Amino acid sequence: MDISYIINELGEDRAQYYGSVTPPIMQTAMFGFDTVEKMREALVKEADLPFYTRGHNPTTYMLQQKMAALENAEDALVFASGSAAIGAAIMANVNQGDHVVCVQKPYSWTGKLLNNLLSRFGVTNTMVDGTNPQNFETAIQPNTKVIFLESPNSWTFEQQDIAAVAQIAQRHGIVTIMDNSYATPLYQRPIDYGIDMVAHSATKYISGHSDTVAGILCGSKEMMAKIFASEFMTLGGVISPFNAWLLLRGLRTLPARLERVSNTTAQVIDYLQQHPMVSKIYYPFLESDPQHELAKKQMLKGAGQFSIALETDDMETMERFCNQLNRFVMACSWGGHESLIFPACVLYTSANYGAATLPVNLIRFYVGLEEPEALIADLEQAFEAIITKVN
Ligand SMILES: *Cc1c(COP(=O)(O)O)cnc(C)c1O
């Protein structure tokens, strides 16, 4: 795969816009025509030709083509958020009375889509421990239409054996959808392992600058056309041309950013591994991780997200450690230039996030583009602050 060709050239035609090196932002709601015939043609091919920006916009279309190529998919659709992409993908494949098998502990709003929203329309689900592919097969019912994966998953980063689950689904004629936000298409390509559709929160690595919320869905032409004609156009959760342009800009540097993030993360984890206050690290590329072999089989490298458990169950110690960090912004999300932490103890006062499922001593990290030494020094002084207090 010629990644730099896809990122720099594919879908772009600079002669059409004065040789401008960067593409124009087609900030328009609709497009005009000289003849009835031309307007008729555009309306018939509303997904592929400029007619109305909810359906097709040339700036957004460049991003669609690049993302489809990177995921080795025939086609892609760009949404206003990752959640909109996931929602459309699942909804397009279920009817009232159907059933979904989903990996346990998916991204929180994926869980809410299944448990709170789709359940209102008679769509049931079973969430399974995804570390054993057999659990997916066991959960299949006669009315199962979708298997939903997220590998590695949010917070604890368990993986699913993508090829094994895809094979099970194919045997049963069930559609597979996978959230690939963690790894991006550069580090993991689920479609190559037999997955039908891949969803991304492009808010994360694709944007890469913490300034845009967006989602992308990749799959076959047939599946994307089906979703375009129903969920995509009817629910209308589309992105603005400007945000699509920001994602194109983010994509230009994705390989360089990911490599830097991956290398820095390895150094930060090396430091954390030898620290006596760290009781556990959740990272698929840790050699001692029970799924390390699977990680090497289906992912090229580890990304910047991992979690650690501290050697304490005291909320106050956790809060002190987190408050003490200066170089890690305390925030949700990840994938941008800046390092982040999301302490699980934050969830303990919020009814909205089903707190009790995560231990209070867990912190999710994202390592950004800072120098590894600066991040390690910051962690060191935060550990010192809690150790001094303990003694
Ligand atoms: C953030 C995230 C989402 C949701 O994406 P939005 O762009 O915030 O709607 C879905 N899956 C994973 C794994 C995420 O981290």
Straight-line distance between termini? 55 Å
- The residue-averaged pLDDT reads 96
Q: Number of DSSP helices?
A: 14
Q: In what order do the strands lie side by side in the largest sheet?
A: 1-7-6-5-4-2-3
SSE pattern: HHHEHEHEHEHEHEEHHHEHEHEEEH
Relative strand content: 15-25%
Q: Identify low-pLDDT runs.
A: none
Radius of gyration: 22 Å
Which ligands are bound?
pyridoxal-5'-phosphate
The amount of helix comes to: 25-40%
The count of DSSP E runs of length 2 or more, i.e. the number of strands, is 12
Largest β sheet strand count, sense and barrel closure: 7 strands, mixed
Overall outline: globular
Going by helix content, strand content and strand pairing, the class is alpha/beta
Q: Summary?
A:
With 391 residues, this protein is an alpha/beta fold.
List keywords for this structure.
single chain, 391 residues, alpha/beta, five-stranded mixed beta sheet, 12 strands
